[in-house]
Amino acid sequence: MSSIFISEFITSQALETLRSKHDVTYEPESYKQRAELISALHNSDALIVRNLTQVNQELLNGAPNLKVVGRLGVGLENIELPACAQRNIKVIPATGANAESVAEYVIGTALALTRGFLPATSQTLGGAWPRAHFSGYHEFTGMTLGIVGFGSIGRVTAQKALAFGLKCVAYDPMISAKSIDVGGAAIPLVPLDELLACSDAVTLHLPLLPETRGLFSATTLDKMKQGACLINTARGGIVEEKALAERLRSGRLGGAALDVFEKEPATDLSHFAGLTNLIATPHIAGVTSESNDRVSQMIADEVIRFLGESK
């Protein structure tokens, strides 16, 4: 049996799957005590984390037997991939396991922003009856959704958007094809500027890399269609928050949904104060009961498979 250490939450079913095959230590709050965590990993063959455990050179130095890191999610910013590669440590993300949840969030928030549900709610609860104003908003059906990053989550989002009668265009610098088939529809891949100019809503599904950090700057935001909405469920550092706040406040952009922020936990969002065209959520787009089950079970199965093959 191999030794597996789990430093953040995993579902009970996945935990039992792991325990049926290996010696498992489950301490879901251990990421908070760095020195104790590193000491506890001395004899571990596998480590399973979410996004709060920093898997860097310091941690790897304290885990000489480590063979595999399972990531309960898809973002890898908290894992030093070059350091893992140097040690030949396998890193396994839960690719695609939370795509349904993220796609639901994108479509739901895009619809709410397009129809003005947030300002309509605040005004109605304030004693107004702004029926005439909000009757001038447009139907969601027939609008264009621009998908920036066309991996597994982007493609599931496109499927749901097509079911709503939306048109979809995509941008992905890693894909050379002119179009990608999604559910029988050919989704065109276009340059970013072209996508921004034609999209009524833009959704981000990019990793946070040096070349994507700050990609949605003031300059990029100003290339978006007048009144368009921006949805970011990827990583906060991709969007310059103060520039976005200015354009939401001025009406240059119609709305935004942010599930991720430059700093998390996001304890100071004062630059967004007073905005009624902003949906702000605490990094929950991909986290539902169902997605937790899928993510946890996928990583449990993949870690067990890897440990069996590496013997």
Question: Your description of this structure?
Answer:
The protein is of the alpha/beta class. The protein has two domains: 3-95 and 289-309, NAD(P)-binding Rossmann-like Domain (Rossmann fold, 3-Layer(aba) Sandwich), CATH 3.40.50.720; 99-280, Rossmann fold (3-Layer(aba) Sandwich), CATH 3.40.50. It has helices at 12-19, 34-40, 57-61, 81-86, 99-115, 117-125, 131-134, 152-163, 192-198, 218-221, 241-250, 289-309, and strands spanning 3-6, 23-26, 46-49, 68-71, 90-93, 144-148, 167-171, 179-182, 185-188, 201-204, 229-232, 255-258, 278-280. Strands 7-6-10-11-12-13 form a six-stranded parallel sheet, with helices on both faces. A five-stranded parallel sheet has the order 2-1-3-4-5. Helix 1 (12-19) runs parallel beside helix 12 and helix 5 packs across helix 8 (152-163). The longest helix has 21 residues, at 289-309. The protein is elongated. The mean pLDDT is 97.
List keywords for this structure.
five-stranded parallel beta sheet; Rossmann fold; 311 residues; 35% helix; elongated; alpha/beta; 13 strands; single chain; six-stranded parallel beta sheet
